[in-house]
Amino acid sequence: MMGFTGRRARPALRLFRNPALPMKITFLGTSSATPTLRRGLPAVALQRDGEVLLFDCGEGTQMQLQKVEVRPSRIAMLLVTHLHGDHVTGIMGLLMSLKLAGRTEPLIIHGPAGIKDYVLGSMRYLRLRVDFALSVEEVVPGDVLHRAGYDISVFPLDHTVPTLGYALEENMRPGRFNVERARALGVPEGPMWGRLQRGDCVLLPDGRTVAPAEVLGQPRRGRKIVYALDTAPCRDAISAAAGASVLIHDATFAPEEEALARQRKHSTSVEAAAIAQEAAVEQLYLTHISARYTHAAPLMRGVRRLLPTARIAHDLMDVEIPLRE
Amino acid sequence: MMGFTGRRARPALRLFRNPALPMKITFLGTSSATPTLRRGLPAVALQRDGEVLLFDCGEGTQMQLQKVEVRPSRIAMLLVTHLHGDHVTGIMGLLMSLKLAGRTEPLIIHGPAGIKDYVLGSMRYLRLRVDFALSVEEVVPGDVLHRAGYDISVFPLDHTVPTLGYALEENMRPGRFNVERARALGVPEGPMWGRLQRGDCVLLPDGRTVAPAEVLGQPRRGRKIVYALDTAPCRDAISAAAGASVLIHDATFAPEEEALARQRKHSTSVEAAAIAQEAAVEQLYLTHISARYTHAAPLMRGVRRLLPTARIAHDLMDVEIPLRE
């Protein structure tokens, strides 16, 4: 089941049932416009709570999915940044294979203005009909998609065509449960502990009420994953990425190609690192790498000085995102 | 330079300058609708005289081209069989990469009704403009595309949507030059031999005229390559494949799935072999293999009994086609 998605104001901080969910990012394609033998066209899968979100879907995405531990049947949502071919030419093939695999679960595709025409128009040309509920919904900067356990905020990027970034942020988790404090307050071990952990007040046998805040530590931040490509360096990406666990950012060029990056509205690796640093991002992954780079050295020059944890993504790279304390 | 292409009656047998041109077929993708880890979506490259013809262009074709000795810049023509996604979803990516590689040579795409809308419509959606002359021309069964040194005949196939097969046939080559006969006739060794070999009459110093037929053996047949997928077994494919050097035929299913093959308008491997046998084809390649087959055995059952030289194509398979004597 998918959560409600739509355009609503972000709700106030919620304390939310949120067990230790594993979260994993898998880079399916990390090249820019032209694929190479080692880098496919852009796509990133994010797995959380048995559900897969796909960011972009370049040509070959369905083939890459076969090489990794990501089940295409679990893809609930595809988030498209913009309508350049390298980011969307895998959609038709993916839809066709999902159909042939007998999919019945609904699928939502979000993207900028034009995504609906592209997807539905291509399906018409190819006489492709699917047997599952497919909705293609255009989003605009400022939209927030509310889903079970997390929100996705849509923000603007600075590229040659209208382009959207996506910031996925989990709801807050309750603070750590203080066993000693619960015992001192006389809360009997058992179901009441669970209710307090889940944010409910409990009534003790002696008539006293204990509130969650009395036994829980500070609420803990959810994980935050921000996807920002294709784009020149921009303030909106910095704001959206503030405090992110992971930022996946355009790094098409090495720093010496800054002029070319400006002209084509892309970023250099060092510019991406500067954005991540300013946004106090925990981990930066550089992707959308130009086919001209067969080695990481020119791209990494100057990057680790700004951000020691920065890494260049590569195809089929898996990244586990730990819970935050 | 590309030859004239258009709809004209096939010209009478021509004797043609035709040196020993190497010809090579490369299977780029050999799966049916769903790709597998070992088989990509349909595409076949044919190299001849420094030129590449591409038959179909499924998703991932541009990536497969990087793995083989086929230069994308040499692709002069793309021949599309039908508008199912697995046969065309690689076109946009290929166009994009050709553009980014700085191509200036023209490119022709031929296909059934609808190919023009699909290609030009997709380019509009993706705001893709190319800097080379791109023409997309719809063809119908019976059309013959005349090119330098060979013709391509378009024939109908029997599938769930309008589908075209293509039969490429080289012009006749002059017969073998009979050196003893030329000497006996008093033709001096040198340029006159070459002119006779190329089909011209020569005037000897003593006033006699020698015609090519006096020194050449029987004209030799050109090579003939026939591409027939997706299709149920059909008479048109048999006629078109008559005497072919190579037939590349739909073999989506093993013989025990004949009912399924009928329902989906595909062929079984044994049906493809029967067609090749009836058409007296020299070499059959079975392709468009369903993802259900991870081994060749079920597909080959009964095939070699009909046609000992039949082979199942695999991705990146190269086949040299020798000249005919």
Strand arrangement in the largest pleated sheet of chain A: 6-5-4-3-2-1-16
Number of extended strands of chain A? 16
The largest sheet of chain A is:
7 strands, mixed
Shape of chain A: globular
**Multimeric state of these chains?**
homodimer
N- to C-terminal separation of chain A?
28 Å
Q: How would you state the average pLDDT of chain A, rounded?
A: 93
Query: How big a fraction of the residues of chain A is strand?
Result: 15-25%
Please tally the helical runs of chain A, counting DSSP H or I stretches of 4 or more residues. 12
Query: Quick one: CATH class of the largest domain in chain A?
Result: Alpha Beta
Structural class of chain A: alpha/beta
What's the Cα radius of gyration of chain A? 22 Å
Number of discrete domains of chain A? 2
What's the order of the H and E elements of chain A? EEEHEHHEHEEEEHHEEHEHEHHEHHEE
What report would you give on this structure?
2 copies of one chain form a homodimer. Helix content of chain A is 24%, strand content 23%. The first copy, chain A, contains 12 helices and 16 strands. In chain A, strands 6-5-4-3-2-1-16 form a 7-stranded mixed β-sheet. In chain A, strands 7-8-9-12-13-14-15 form a 7-stranded mixed β-sheet. Chain A has a two-stranded antiparallel sheet with strand order 10-11. In chain A, α4 links the parallel β5 and β6 (134-138). Residues 1-18 of chain A have low confidence and may be disordered. At the A-B interface, α2, α3 and α4 of A face α2, α3 and α4 of B.
